[in-house]
Amino acid sequence: MKTKSIILHLIFLVIVVLELIGTVNGSKWLDYPVKPFILIWIAAYFLIMTKPQPYRWLVMLAFFFSWSGDLFLMFGWKSDMFFFAGVGGFFLSQVTYIQAFRKFSVGQGKGLIARKPLWALPFLIYLVGIYVLLYPHLEGIMKPVVALYAISLLGMSAAAFNRMGLIEPKSFWILFGGSVFFVISDSLLAINKFATPIPNEGFMVMATYMLAQYLIMLGLLEGSQTIRR
Predict the structure, then answer these.
(1) Confidence class for position 229, pLDDT limits 50, 70, 90
(2) Which ranges constitute the DSSP H helices of the chain?
(3) Which pTM was predicted?
(4) Is residue 189 classed as helix, strand or coil in its secondary structure?
């Protein structure tokens, strides 16, 4: 199994490198064929490394929604419908991640935020802060769209944080770290698109996004093997 994991990770490394090269160079001929394989690899690795168990389908559904979001956003420059479809895909992904974090590989009892609601405050502060930053640059339908997606994104990260005490620390920190990188990636994307240009935005967004999805998958995988009952 270790040899299989190494080989699979070498394949993922090739995907990551090619995607970053395509992003930095603006090469759609490289970016477009490679990007769909990010979530395909993550989903396949997760399936290979886990045994059938309750709520695994939720994780796979979250991967699927992220994958569809990637595909639609690739063509966001063609039409606003593709952009909104992509945002919708990631919104569904965040909502499904929230459910997966609550159900998959979680021990008995209440999580940290459920026991101590004040721990939700940092997530609320960031949510308000990023929306206040973006609001003056949003027009029409984008105001509620960005608000709704920001709520789902920070809700996903809060749900990851809520797992503290319900899962082995290694699994918790890997998964929560992934959720934080997801917030960073989408924040950079939103700031660059709506507020102010960010140097090397494409590279930073994709690097943090791929790391986020990988760590979330790895955290769930780790949790499925070390769950406390």
Answers:
(1) very low
(2) 2-25, 28-34, 36-49, 56-74, 80-103, 112-115, 121-134, 142-161, 169-190, 201-226
(3) 0.94
(4) helix
